[in-house]
């Protein structure tokens, strides 16, 4: 029985990875050993589970049915470990977290250092995506996103409010002029962050309470916040970006803040989770840890969890 359970887990990993070599690397095994386990599993069941070619793997009809049962077995084993660990006050198993490049760089990775030290039996898989992804399909336990939430199938809790700024390089401003009003921005080139949609608008609020809304125009578009900053540094246009992502460049003078008397509305950053009856202990503990970390950094955290 133990060999069958082991081979079911190996089979599931092969399907998840889409290749014997990638599964072998994650399992710490040789590719030939993984292939042998799958062959022995098929012989034991008396049916082919995988269709193999030189370029890809695909599931047979029987393989798809069996894969679903393998996932149930793996999840049951994980729940059993988690329940025992909870009784001992420990976190175990794998925690899958997804976020953007900027949030990972400036907040999540620094916060995770102490969290992982506190929970040595926990395995972390950090997925970096600047665009929204399907949490269910990617088997993500928790994602951190900024902006407006649209998907009602997830549960969310607001973690922080993050400041954005408008900025450009000295070379760009020397060539195109420094905007002295929101109206002047309409004559400038923008580097646009595509995950925010198209067309995009900027809402600016003056210190005296006046507001101005304008459309961003330009011919450079990217789905990466880091690439957007690099394009601004090379003089390609004006960007709106998280202050934390450009703070060093603003201090060094490589980028210059535009219209400092006007501000952009703060962006809400949310923790997003698949809808479950009870969130796993490892997810709840990470949420608590992130809220405390962000509060220490001076970012506003909100305690309640709401259904989106």
Automatic annotation (TrEMBL):
Entries under Gene3D superfamilies matching the protein: 3.40.190.290, Winged helix-like DNA-binding domain superfamily/Winged helix DNA-binding domain
Gene Ontology terms, MF aspect: DNA-binding transcription factor activity; sequence-specific DNA binding
Any single GO BP term: DNA-templated transcription
The HTH lysR-type domain, residue ranges: 1-60
Pfam families: HTH_1 (PF00126), LysR_substrate (PF03466)
Xref: InterPro entries: LysR-type_TF_proteobact-type, LysR_HTH_N, LysR_subst-bd, WH-like_DNA-bd_sf, WH_DNA-bd_sf
UniProt KW Repressor keyword: yes
UniProt entry tagged with the keyword Transmembrane: no
Domain of life: Bacteria
Record's keyword terms, sorted: DNA-binding, Repressor, Transcription, Transcription regulation
Sequence similarity: Belongs to the LysR transcriptional regulatory family.
Protein name stated in the entry: LysR family transcriptional regulator
Organism name: Serratia marcescens
Record lineage: Bacteria, Pseudomonadati, Pseudomonadota, Gammaproteobacteria, Enterobacterales
């Amino acid at each position: 029985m133990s060999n069958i359970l082991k081979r079911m887990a190996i089979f599931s990993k092969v399907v998840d990875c889409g290749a014997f070599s990638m599964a072998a690397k994650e399992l710490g095994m040789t590719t030939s050993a993984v292939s042998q386990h799958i062959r022995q599993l098929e012989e034991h069941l008396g049916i082919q589970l995988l269709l193999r070619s030189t370029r890809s793997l695909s599931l047979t009809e029987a393989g798809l049915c069996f894969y679903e049962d393998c996932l149930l077995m793996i999840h049951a084993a994980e729940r059993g470990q988690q329940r025992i660990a909870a009784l001992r006050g420990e976190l175990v198993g794998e925690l899958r977290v997804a976020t953007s490049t900027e949030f990972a760089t400036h907040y999540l990775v620094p916060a995770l250092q102490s969290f992982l030290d506190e929970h040595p039996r926990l395995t972390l898989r950090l997925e970096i995506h600047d665009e929204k992804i399907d949490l269910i399909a990617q088997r993500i336990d928790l994602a951190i996103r900024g902006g407006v939430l649209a998907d009602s199938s997830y549960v969310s809790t607001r973690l922080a409010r993050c400041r954005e700024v408008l900025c450009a390089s000295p070379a760009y401003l020397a060539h195109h002029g420094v905007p002295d009003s929101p109206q002047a921005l309409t004559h400038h080139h923008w580097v646009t962050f595509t995950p925010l949609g198209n067309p995009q608008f900027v809402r600016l609020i003056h210190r005296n309470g006046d507001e101005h809304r304008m459309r961003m125009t330009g011919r450079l578009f990217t789905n990466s916040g880091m690439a957007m900053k690099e394009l601004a540094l090379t003089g390609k246009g004006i960007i709106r970006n998280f202050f934390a992502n450009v703070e060093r460049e603003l201090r060094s003078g490589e980028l210059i803040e535009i219209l400092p008397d006007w501000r952009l509305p703060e962006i809400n950053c949310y923790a997003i989770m698949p809808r479950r009856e009870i969130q796993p202990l490892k997810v709840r503990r990470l949420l608590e840890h992130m809220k405390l970390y962000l509060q220490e950094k001076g970012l506003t955290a909100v305690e309640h969890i709401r259904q989106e």
